[in-house]
Specification:
Largest sheet of chain A: none
Helix content of chain B: 40-55%
CATH superfamily of the largest domain in chain B: P-loop containing nucleotide triphosphate hydrolases
Structural class of chain A: mainly alpha
Order of helices and strands of chain A: HHHHHHHHHHHHHHHHH
Number of helices of chain A: 17
Strand order of the largest sheet of chain B: 2-5-8-1-9
Radius of gyration of chain B: 21 Å
Distance between the termini of chain A: 108 Å
Largest sheet of chain B: 5 strands, parallel
Low-confidence stretches of chain A: 158-167, 234-264, 289-315, 323-400, 425-438
Number of helices of chain B: 14
Structural class of chain B: alpha/beta
Strand content of chain A: under 5%
Shape of chain B: globular
Oligomer: heterodimer
Shape of chain A: rod-shaped
Strand content of chain B: 15-25%
Number of domains of chain A: 3
Number of domains of chain B: 2
Largest interface: A-B, 20 and 23 residues
Distance between the termini of chain B: 36 Å
Chain lengths: 476, 332
């Protein structure tokens, strides 16, 4: 460079690049750090995505504005003053850079130009304008590094890898929803469609973050119960399913249709698998202990369903003489081992209903089929009141079977069961008068329920169902 | 046409020659001598403040001799009349007819020393001040032009206050520089004694000859005005003046509003600019720099910044406020 104007332009470019790098070095780490922090926190906490996007967008905007403003900041006047300072130009470069064009060719300006040219040799860009990172750049880099380090060292509960204690894995829920929709497809059976709708509703409920893991597990258990019920007994559906009646007659009390999965029913298996995985996830998240193993023979009392303060009393048919020795509620070991979740009353109700050895599933041949009214037998209900819910006394539930019907399962044609939730109820355990709030679903004394069959055909107008004796006191 | 570099070189040579020549007679006061010469070549007048016996009269007299210019001294007293300065018409009797003849006063010189100007009445002061501004005098309705160059150097005695008439603010503003002459130190005093009490005394050799010297002085003054002033520098001067003016709301310096009654006006900006140009020429440049301006800001503004009562009560001087301004006003 031999001309002062060229030196001014060269110095301006160099200064501009230096400041641009400093601006980039200041805003870019902050933008990256805020973006990564927002992405990490977005996965760990639930807040609007917009909040996570605002900081990096703000840093990016400030970066663009600063770069644009630099072009104005680093002007010829600034550079010329800097050159005067570095070369002891004493205003020569400043005069050359800012003098109006009317004096461009005057002898005096030419003399200034000549004197400034003699100063060019004393200027070395590398020595006089070394590239130095601004202190703010180091501060920004350090702040970005520290923030990222802190975020990556956060406790596992706050990272993406570990879900919150009350949140079900979204992938499993998604799979469950897909399975439910598959079951609800046009080609599915009505039972499967009902099951699919229930599973879909369950998936939506599980997404509720206000529910505790215990409540979600209970919902999953209930859903599994309903799934087994739906698939094992298609008569439960409101429309006429006489077409399927022969299938149930051939069951011969096996009744474990819920457990006898069709070999090609993959959506159902997948749905059940998803539900099991969800339960495991919720258990691990809540820190619940795994469910105890199947009840042993001597632990019959512990397996009995929890008595509810109210609920529906049920009359269950007496077991056949040969099998009356068996304690009601005791499930075959084989069946109990099938699932580790047989402790819940729902499961007991379900499996008991399908257990051929249980009283409810026994054939009533030779029994006095009582088709009387639905008034429950108080004697039969006494064992239930004593907390031995599955102890069925009294006469067998003959009234639940119509002539010619096979006692395939405890839920026969037109049978229905009712689950009652008492918001604030009383739970009497044993002989204690202790009353506790019962906010969970109503737990019937027996794991299954039954309602009196109407005497006429199904489409006949139903008579008013009498209120069970146990309810009359409460409802009075 | 003489190239600019030759003109600059010649200017520097003459200036330094005059300065050295005056320095042979005046001991010390190098900066005062330089500022006086700066004001002279910038076309302004100077007010010097100092105690008696510091060589103020000798300095002006030596300056005039070195410049080859005519010199007159006016001692201002309370009874001095304006006609004593500008002249008067006297009745002359020649060729048998009586007529009035204008007798020129001492103001009709190229270098005038107005000694202790604050001792004269305001009416008398106005006579010399009119001459300074207009370069002419009006006597009995007739205007008489003064010689060129015309340079007034006024002095003030800071000790004697009784019986004095301080110059009004409007009159003070007409002086280019106000210089303060400090008493000499011991070394300088010894030198003064050696020079003034010996038998032989140095005689000033004129650097510029009478007659042709006047044209040269005019050319040097023209060169001063041709020095380039970049726009950032003129903006800096304007910002300086605006900052030093109280009551306009533009001053970021709190002391200006607190201690100043009046601030400098456009004449202050002109004094800074022209004085900086002379400094640039002395440095061999034809462009002004910020350092040139900083050197002349104090003498140019100290008599233009009028202090209020609070400043006088707190012993705050104008110099302190101007130095504060130089620190706080940004150059960009």
């Amino acid at each position: 460079m031999t001309a002062p104007s060229a030196l001014i332009e060269f110095t301006r470019q160099r200064l501009l690049h230096q400041r641009q790098l400093n601006v980039l070095g200041f805003f870019l780490p902050l933008a990256i750090a805020t973006g990564v922090a927002g992405w990490l926190l977005l996965g760990a906490f639930s807040f609007p995505s917009l909040l996570a996007v605002i900081p990096p967008v703000l840093c990016g905007s400030l970066l663009i504005v600063s770069l644009w403003h630099l072009g104005k900041e680093v002007g010829r006047e600034t550079v010329a003053a800097l050159l005067d300072e570095k070369t002891a130009g004493k205003g020569r470069f400043l005069t050359l850079a800012t003098c109006p064009e009317t004096q461009a060719n005057t002898p005096f300006l030419t003399l200034v130009d000549q004197q400034a040219t003699s100063k060019i040799a004393a200027f070395e860009p590398a020595r006089d304008l070394p590239f130095k990172l601004d202190k703010r750049v180091f501060a920004a880099l350090l702040a970005a590094a520290l923030s990222l380090l802190i975020l990556f060292l956060l406790p596992p509960t706050l990272t993406l890898s570990t879900p919150g204690p009350d949140s079900a894995p979204s992938t499993l829920l998604t799979e469950l929803e897909e399975t439910a929709r598959t079951l609800m497809s046009k080609g599915a059976t009505p039972q499967e469609q009902v099951t699919g709708a229930q599973l879909l509703a369950l998936a939506q409920e599980l997404k509720d973050p206000t529910l505790s893991p215990q409540e979600k597990q209970r919902l999953i258990d209930e859903a599994q119960q309903r799934m087994k019920l739906n698939l094992s007994l298609p008569q439960i559906l409101p429309f006429d399913l006489k077409l399927f009646a022969t299938e149930n007659k051939n069951n011969n009390g096996q009744g474990n249709q819920g457990d006898q999965q069709q070999p090609d029913n993959q959506p159902l298996a997948k749905a059940n698998q998803n539900l099991e995985q969800l339960k495991k996830t919720l258990s691990s998240a809540a820190g619940n202990e795994p469910q105890p193993g199947p009840p042993k023979d001597g632990e019959q009392k512990e397996q009995q369903p929890r008595e509810a303060g109210g609920g529906i009393k049920f009359n269950m048919p007496q077991p056949p003489p040969g099998k009356q020795q068996e304690r009601p509620g005791q499930e075959p070991s084989g069946q109990q081992q099938k699932s580790s979740q047989d402790q819940t009353p729902n499961n007991q109700m379900q499996t008991a209903g399908t257990d051929p050895n249980r009283p409810g599933g026994q054939q009533d041949q030779g029994q006095n089929q009582n088709k009387n009214g639905p008034t429950p037998n108080p004697q039969q209900n006494e064992p239930q009141e004593k907390g031995r819910g599955s102890t069925i006394g009294g006469s067998p539930g003959e009234r639940f079977l119509q002539p010619g019907e096979q006692p395939g399962g405890f839920l026969t044609k037109d049978a229905r069961f009712v689950k009652v939730r008492i918001p604030v109820g009383e739970e009497i355990k044993g002989e204690s008068d202790r009353r506790t709030e019962n906010r969970g679903p109503a737990q019937p004394k027996v794991p299954y329920s039954n309602a009196p069959l109407k005497e006429g055909p199904p489409d006949q107008a139903q008579p008013k169902q009498p209120i069970p004796l146990e309810y009359r006191k409460i409802l009075q | 046409m003489t190239p600019p570099e030759d003109r600059v070189r010649e200017f520097r040579r003459l200036f330094t020659s005059i300065e050295e020549e005056v320095g042979r007679v005046i001991v010390g006061h190098r900066d005062v001598v330089r500022k006086v010469l700066t004001a002279f070549f910038a076309g302004g007048h100077v007010l010097i403040e100092g105690v008696p016996g510091l060589g103020k009269t000798l300095m002006v007299k030596s300056l005039s001799q070195a410049l080859g210019l005519s010199f007159k001294r006016i001692q201002f007293t309370p009874d001095l009349m304006p006609s004593d300065i500008v002249g008067t018409q006297v009745l002359a009797d020649g060729t048998g007819e009586r007529h009035f003849e204008f007798k020129r006063g001492p103001v009709f010189a190229q270098v005038v020393l107005a000694d202790e100007v604050n001792r004269a009445t305001p009416k008398t002061q106005s006579a010399i001040l009119e001459a300074m501004e207009e370069h002419q005098v009006t006597v009995f309705g007739e205007t008489y032009k003064l010689d060129s160059p015309f340079f007034v150097l006024a002095t003030q005695n800071p000790i004697e206050i009784e019986g004095t008439y301080p110059l009004p603010e409007a009159q003070l503003d007409r002086f280019f520089f106000k210089l303060i002459v400090h008493p000499p130190n011991s070394v300088e005093l010894a030198e003064i004694l050696a020079r003034t009490t010996a038998e032989a005394r140095y005689q000033i050799k004129p650097v510029l000859r009478t007659g042709p010297g006047q044209a040269l002085v005019e050319e040097m003054k023209t060169l001063v005005r041709q020095v380039l002033l970049a726009p950032p520098l003129s903006n800096y001067v304007a910002a300086l003046i605006a900052t030093a003016t109280p009551g306009t709301g533009q001053s970021p310096v709190a002391e200006v509003t607190q201690y100043l009654r009046y601030g400098p006006g456009p004449r202050g900006a002109q004094a800074i600019t022209l004085g900086a140009k002379v400094n640039a020429l002395l440095d061999g440049r034809v462009n002004v720099s910020f350092e040139d301006m900083a050197d002349v800001t104090l003498p140019a503004l100290r008599h233009r910044c009028l202090l209020n009562f609070q400043a006088e009560a707190e012993n705050v001087t104008a110099d302190q406020i101007i130095e504060l301004l130089l620190k706080k006003v940004s150059k960009r």
